[in-house]
Amino acid sequence: MSSYRIQGATGEWEVVIGLEVHAQVTSNAKLFSGAATAFGAEPNTQVSLVDAAMPGMLPVPNRECIRQAVRTGMAIEAEINTYSRFDRKNYFYADLPQGYQISQLYHPIVGEGQLLIEADEKAGIAEDKVIGIERIHVEQDAGKLMHDQHPTMSYVDLNRSGVALMEIVSKPDMRSPAEAGAYVRKLRAILRYVGSCDGNMEEGSMRADVNVSVRKPGEEFGTRTETKNVNSVRFVMQVIEYEANRQVDVIENGGKVDQETRLFDPGTGTTRTMRSKEDAHDYRYFPDPDLLPLELEEDFLAECRASLPELPDAKRRRYENDLGLTPYNARELTAEVETFARFETLLAAAAAKIGKGEAQVATQVANWALSVAPGVMKSLGDEANMANATAEAQAGILAMQDKGEISGGQAKEIYEIVLRDGGEPEKIADEKGLKQVSDTGAIEEAIDAIIAANGDKVEEYRSGKDKLFGFFVGQTMKAMQGKANPAVVNQILKDKLS
Amino acid sequence: MTELTNLGVKAIRDGVADGTFTAREVAEAFNAAVAAASELNAFIVATPDHALAAADAVDAKRAKGEDLGKMGGVPIGMKDLFATKGVQTTAASHILEGFTPEYESTVSQNLWDAGAGMLGKLNLDQFAMGSSNETSYFGNVASPWKKDGTNAAMSPGGSSGGSSSAVAARIAPAATGTDTGGSIRQPAAFTGICGIKPTYGRCSRWGVVAFASSLDQAGPMARSVEDCAIMLEAMAGFDPKDATSLQMDVPAWEAGLDADLKGKKIGIPKEYRMDGTDEEILKSWEQGKEWLHDAGAEIVDVSLPHTKYALPAYYIVAPAEASSNLARYDGVRYGLRDLPDGAGLQDMYAATRAAGFGDEVKRRILIGTYVLSAGFYDAYYTQAQKIRTLVAKDFAQAFGQCDAILAPTTPTASFPLGSLNEDPLTMYLNDVFAVPASLAGLPAMSVPATLNADGLPLGLQIVGKPFDEQGVLDTGLAIQQRAGFDAKPDKWW
């Protein structure tokens, strides 16, 4: 149970949240036409006759978009509807050339599924929670109006017109802004793992309609508002925060929450009415007669299933159970596609170089990847050339460290040079003298001298003052100018002092 | 040379192929006939250069000994619902007046690829909505036929009224039509020519201005069953650009023609004997039965019990789809734009659509919008779809007992232009016999049977099993051979 509550004048209020996430399907072509979909192209350069709704033009479903929706459904463990259908949602707007959007109201392609959000103390999520997903359907995006091109006219850019979207509709299962934020992040990760959406919220590849209502804990759901087109995780959380408090104020002041569509203003962090229920469109949905129902064959489904990668939850469990990583490290490493991809490449390279199994070096590699390497990178700032951050180079450093040839500090120093100037870590270590001395002869010589010079301390140690061991280590390291292998120093000191 | 215009598709194709005349001679003859027939108002624009260029290409091919194509050297009329590259395509509407597509519809392209040329774009009821060709923005089309002893202009039927008028008047040997609820068959019947609507999906809808997508089908209109077979072969075929296109090979219908109906059963649906049907129509139906019996067929009674609900269901489904299909004509991207001073987007929509659509189109958009509205959808659209399923089931059951169905095409012969304008319901009833086959997506054809006492043509309709255009054509051919319909209208234009 979430403990997030709005403190109202009449007591505590619980907030109820459902999200409709629109995710642009990764595909070279639009949902029903062959036109391209790249972001940022010149206006109206990616428009086919179909997208411009020229007379007599017909939609033909793009199989790749359907495949991506099915794979996404499988990734949230959802029911895949082998029979689905397209419906027309009719309304007039200048960015909607057909005068209707082709969507799926009555028979969506994906049915009920679910998504796990993980406990996160810091974010205020006490325990793991499963969020229900109602459905996923595919639909066309609209074009874009440009109001800043002419003093009295608006221009229309149809590049986005007809681009495939998945609308992923959650159940009203979230109870705090943190849960909603975690849901969006997790959904984004899954989409990116699957490769069905690039999850780029800045470019509009992912945006959310945020449904919020409030109630006294344990009571029936209140009236909800829907805030449209929110395009970042932070904004989603702000909308909820703002809407929940606004609704509590309205109710506690004797008013009623209107079921309405609202708009978010990122500048002020507030929402305002876009249209009320009375102004709601009658979309006159009906089955699109240009399109036959989609009937998915078992072969197609099997191919979709086989093409799914290891998903975030499974990967996290494997990192913990098979690689022996801490839950924190496992979660951090699996949160983003790039992170785990880099980690797994480095892990393979390091294990090979070191000559041990992946599980035996995983913790070392994880610590390197999550804390050491980012620390070095950060300290270098602009000087870091990330092209030098190859798995090969990093594995080389890790291998030297594993063999005791370099210390942790030296590893950082070498990596710093690698990032800044490039080069092979092994050579750098040699050339810059960044190696520990493991030559027992030299260390013994130094230790013999220290023992000879500190007879009194040796006596004290031998008579039980164990703490002095540190003094001897320090003296030895000093004599060795910090380059002695601490493990070797320890061993020889122990032998000689006993 | 004037005799050339009396020739049909097969005679022209064969004559060009064997060198009796050149394709250019044919094109010139028809171009001249088109130019001289402006009183019929069958064409919105003539395209003599297109016809000549195609003819010259065919003649050049013949000189080189190359294959001339299924329609080699045949100039045809193109219903102005088909997008033709570089040639104005209006759907007989003001809102698309002057619209010149940069693309060619699949069906017209197929015809050009088969060696046909275009005489011009044929008039029609606006957006194919109408049964008399009186809703065109470009004026009524007159039938070449007159009622004996009168001089009133008669309706050529609709919506393919320009097509029927032109073919009956011998200013085109053949023309394309489209049939949503009888728009090929009814005008064919009114003007004494043949017309076939194939199985839904045979002809691509790509590039055809949409009226009601789940019903629209293109088909040929010509003066003989053979000509229809030839032209349908050229028009049909799978098109990956139309998701409802049939993924089937096009049969060799012309080669397969066989008027011997021995072993075939022809069903006579008792529900088509409706009140208000003209006695002479019923008589010609009886005659048709005898002809088919004579051709070797067994005549059996069948029942299509949901027939009386078909027309009301059609007038829900078709307007519903039309109301959505016509939403794209909004003044934003092409066609008419009416932007009053200081107007906003909504004002522009209202002004453009008010000025751009005719009354019948507006009537159907209103009906369609109404039946799809929240609270009415289930009572109208859902019910209509159920009826549609039942109508299709009726046919499926009837086809358990017979191979094809014979019925009248229309309840009456042609009527004078202007006589039914005030009464949309009576006008709609014209398609009562045509609509059931449309709802079921079945191939259906009208062939001329006889002239009535007023000297006006009457047609008989054959409805076939899905994909059995051959059976329909064969039955039509059996009627054609026995009817011996060779009447032609007296030239008054």
Automatic annotation (TrEMBL), chain A:
<comment type="similarity">
    <text>Belongs to the GatB/GatE family. GatB subfamily.</text>
</comment>
<feature type="domain" description="Asn/Gln amidotransferase">
    <location>
        <begin position="341"/>
        <end position="497"/>
    </location>
</feature>
<protein>
    <recommendedName>
        <fullName>Aspartyl/glutamyl-tRNA(Asn/Gln) amidotransferase subunit B</fullName>
        <ecNumber>6.3.5.-</ecNumber>
    </recommendedName>
</protein>
<dbReference type="InterPro" id="IPR003789">
    <property type="entry name" value="Asn/Gln_tRNA_amidoTrase-B-like"/>
</dbReference>
<dbReference type="InterPro" id="IPR006075">
    <property type="entry name" value="Asn/Gln-tRNA_Trfase_suB/E_cat"/>
</dbReference>
<dbReference type="InterPro" id="IPR004413">
    <property type="entry name" value="GatB"/>
</dbReference>
<keyword id="KW-0436">Ligase</keyword>
<dbReference type="Pfam" id="PF02637">
    <property type="entry name" value="GatB_Yqey"/>
</dbReference>
<dbReference type="InterPro" id="IPR017958">
    <property type="entry name" value="Gln-tRNA_amidoTrfase_suB_CS"/>
</dbReference>
<keyword id="KW-0547">Nucleotide-binding</keyword>
<keyword id="KW-0648">Protein biosynthesis</keyword>
<dbReference type="Pfam" id="PF02934">
    <property type="entry name" value="GatB_N"/>
</dbReference>
<keyword id="KW-0067">ATP-binding</keyword>
<dbReference type="InterPro" id="IPR014746">
    <property type="entry name" value="Gln_synth/guanido_kin_cat_dom"/>
</dbReference>
<comment type="subunit">
    <text>Heterotrimer of A, B and C subunits.</text>
</comment>
<dbReference type="InterPro" id="IPR042114">
    <property type="entry name" value="GatB_C_1"/>
</dbReference>
<dbReference type="InterPro" id="IPR017959">
    <property type="entry name" value="Asn/Gln-tRNA_amidoTrfase_suB/E"/>
</dbReference>
<dbReference type="InterPro" id="IPR023168">
    <property type="entry name" value="GatB_Yqey_C_2"/>
</dbReference>
<comment type="function">
    <text>Allows the formation of correctly charged Asn-tRNA(Asn) or Gln-tRNA(Gln) through the transamidation of misacylated Asp-tRNA(Asn) or Glu-tRNA(Gln) in organisms which lack either or both of asparaginyl-tRNA or glutaminyl-tRNA synthetases. The reaction takes place in the presence of glutamine and ATP through an activated phospho-Asp-tRNA(Asn) or phospho-Glu-tRNA(Gln).</text>
</comment>
<dbReference type="InterPro" id="IPR018027">
    <property type="entry name" value="Asn/Gln_amidotransferase"/>
</dbReference>
UniProtKB/TrEMBL annotation, chain B:
<keyword id="KW-0067">ATP-binding</keyword>
<keyword id="KW-0436">Ligase</keyword>
<comment type="function">
    <text>Allows the formation of correctly charged Gln-tRNA(Gln) through the transamidation of misacylated Glu-tRNA(Gln) in organisms which lack glutaminyl-tRNA synthetase. The reaction takes place in the presence of glutamine and ATP through an activated gamma-phospho-Glu-tRNA(Gln).</text>
</comment>
<dbReference type="InterPro" id="IPR004412">
    <property type="entry name" value="GatA"/>
</dbReference>
<feature type="active site" description="Acyl-ester intermediate">
    <location>
        <position position="183"/>
    </location>
</feature>
<dbReference type="InterPro" id="IPR020556">
    <property type="entry name" value="Amidase_CS"/>
</dbReference>
<dbReference type="InterPro" id="IPR023631">
    <property type="entry name" value="Amidase_dom"/>
</dbReference>
<protein>
    <recommendedName>
        <fullName>Glutamyl-tRNA(Gln) amidotransferase subunit A</fullName>
        <ecNumber>6.3.5.7</ecNumber>
    </recommendedName>
</protein>
<comment type="subunit">
    <text>Heterotrimer of A, B and C subunits.</text>
</comment>
<feature type="domain" description="Amidase">
    <location>
        <begin position="28"/>
        <end position="473"/>
    </location>
</feature>
<feature type="active site" description="Charge relay system">
    <location>
        <position position="159"/>
    </location>
</feature>
<keyword id="KW-0648">Protein biosynthesis</keyword>
<comment type="similarity">
    <text>Belongs to the amidase family. GatA subfamily.</text>
</comment>
<feature type="active site" description="Charge relay system">
    <location>
        <position position="79"/>
    </location>
</feature>
<dbReference type="Pfam" id="PF01425">
    <property type="entry name" value="Amidase"/>
</dbReference>
<dbReference type="InterPro" id="IPR036928">
    <property type="entry name" value="AS_sf"/>
</dbReference>
<keyword id="KW-0547">Nucleotide-binding</keyword>
<dbReference type="InterPro" id="IPR000120">
    <property type="entry name" value="Amidase"/>
</dbReference>
